[in-house]
Every structure is written in structure tokens, then in C-alpha cells.
Amino acid sequence: MSRNSINGVFWKFLVLALVLPAVFSFPALAGEEAERENPLRVHFIDVGQGDCSLIQCPDGTNILIDGGRIWTYPFLIEYLRNAGVEKIDLMVATHPHSDHYGGLIPVLKAFPVGTVLDPGKDHPTDLYHRFLETIKSLPEVEFKLARAGQRYSFGGAEILIVHPSARLPAHPNDASIVLKLTHGDVSFLFTGDAERVAEMEMMSRGFNLRSTVLKVGHHGSRTSTGTAFLSRVSPRAAVIPVGENNRYGHPHPEVVRRLRLRGVEIFRTDLQGTVLFFSDGRDYRVEFPGKAVYPEYEIPEEKAGRIVANRVTLLYYEPRSPYAVQVPPADRVFFDTAVGAETAGFTRSGW
Ligand SMILES: [Zn+2]
Question: How many other CB atoms are there within 10 angstroms of residue 185's CB atom?
Fold first, then answer.
């Protein structure tokens, strides 16, 4: 045996001695470490008067529930990118109201999307049909109707659809997709704009609704979060997604009182901005990354004083509007006159 081959055997043995224990002990260590380094993240994103939640599962799966109103997209897309989102595995359009699905239209074009869950409640508005058309134009996106009892599993995070059933309630709010996310001992209930009718149906279905965190239904409207439903969910914390000084008076004081009476810790996106939960499956902690900040883009000097239209939202702004600078350069179209913008299919923004 030459010196070289003895060396070869020695090295092989040394490598095996080092690698084997590592191979056998690695999975357990990796599991614990992964949990510490990759906790479940649930973002209740401040999108003003609207609703938008991002769930980032420990295995890297991204779930987006609603996307706020369509014109919040420059902020939302940047927020998602900053959160490390490169694809959306599951997109949930809780119900066909534009403060929920609107922002999903540009998100569908900005990120690859796996599956879209929709309640299948038709709503005769141009924007909702545009949402459906956008999905149809993307053959790689799977469109699925959400029905109570469906389950999904993403690396330790379980999703259960608790509403609606195939027999959809008359009001779009009550047709909201409601889902429960469970990660170990910590769970979240996302209720869309579900009101009393939906809450009664959910309670009659026999699912365990008890959840650590409740995303309060319909922006804290008094028509949601009934006492019986609240006692079934029995949350430790509640998040109300709501815009500052909104014209609906949300959240209604009765709802805040009902939550306080039960000792529930209340978070509000109008007061605290985005509310971000981290959970290792045993407990949770909360951070506040801040209020929504809408990026502003310089308008080239030669275009100053012209009308700015946005080809994503199909809205146009007078040159003096403070929102004209918020149209991303890639999406803007300039017009000399309002008539020109309207002829081209744009609608005047109220702002
Ligand atoms: Zn809503």
C-alpha cells in the first residue's frame, strides 16, 4: 500500500466520522433552529380603509388574504417585496368588494401566483370582472372556489376554511371566505367582512372556532363580532383593519366595548399602522413596522401641468392633485385635457 492510498483511506474515514453524526443529528437541530429563525409571520398590512393580510409560513409559503383598494398597489407591492415575497402560493379574495380584492389585481401581475381562492359570489361591477379577467389571462394561476371544510397544510401551518358553504348567503359580506390558520398552539381567524348571518352559519357548522388572534370582521362594524361568536372564538388579541377618519365610523364603539369586556388586546391599523405577529407555535410577539407610505415619483419637467392617468387603476388626476406624483412611471399616461383622458377610458379621481 502506497503512502498515498493510506492517506486516501485516512481522509475517507475522517470525512465519514465528521459527516455521519452531522447527518443523523442535523434534522432535529434544523427543525428547532428553523423555527427560531423562520417563525410564522402574520402581517395585518395598513392599507387605509380596506383589508389585507400576509401570512408567511415557516416553510416559505406566502398566503395573501385580500389586497386593499386598487390604488394602494404601489405601497403594497413594495411592502410585499420588502417582506421577501417572490411568489404568492395562495391568494384569497374573501369577497367581491373592492376594498378587499381591488389591490389583488396589480399583485396578480407583479408576482407569480399559485392558487386564487374566491367565494364564487358574482358581483356586477367592472372592477370585479376585471379581477376575474386578470386571473383568466394568467393560465398558470389556478382558480378555486373556497368551501367550508377544505384544508391546506404548509410546513406546520394548517389552514381550514370555515366559511362559506356552497349555499352562498345573499349579501356579499356574508359570503366572505373565513379561514383559520393554526400553527402549534397559536391560531388566527381571518373573517373578511363576515357579518351576523355568516357568524351564525359558522357557529352551526361545528368547527372549532377558538383562535388566539381574531381579525375582526367588517372593519369593526357593529354588524359583525356578535357576543356569541366572540365567545366561541375567545381570542387573546384582535386586529381591526380600518382607515383613519373613515366615513363609516369604523370601528363602531360597541365592537371595541365587546372586545374590551372580554379583556381582548386590541390592535388597530388606523392607530398603529401595520401589525406584525411572529409566532414559534407556542406563543407570539407583535411588532409595528409603521403606517403605509405611498412612494412619490418625480414628474419630468416637460410633462409638468399635464393630467396624469394611471393605467392600472384607470383613474386620472388633475395636475394639482397630490396623488398625481404617486402614479408609478411605468403605469402613467399623460393627457392635455380631461376630455382626452376620459375618451381614453380613464375616470376622474375624486382626490
Ligand atoms: Zn371591507
Answer: 12
Q: Where are the domains of the chain?
A: 1-37, 38-290, 301-348
Closest CA to 93 of 211, 165, 204, 172: 172
Residues with CB under 5 A from ligand 1 (ion): 99, 193
For 174-219, the pLDDT digits (tens) are 999 999 999 999 999 999 999 999 999 999 999 999 999 999 999 9
DSSP, residue by residue, 172-215? GGGG--EEEEEETTEEEEE-TT--HHHHHHHHHTT-----SEEE
Distance 31 CA to ligand 1 centre (A): 38
CB atoms within 10 A of CB 35: 18
pLDDT tens-place string over residues 141-175? 999 999 999 999 998 899 999 999 999 999 999 99
Enter the C-alpha cell of residue 107.
399583485
Predicted structure pTM score: 0.88
Whole-number Å distance, alpha carbon 22 to ligand 1 midpoint, is 51
Q: What pLDDT is recorded for position 351? A: 66
At the fourth CATH level, which superfamily is domain 38-290?
Ribonuclease Z/Hydroxyacylglutathione hydrolase-like (3.60.15.10)
Omega cis (within 30) before 251: yes
Contact 89, 58 (CB under 8 A): no
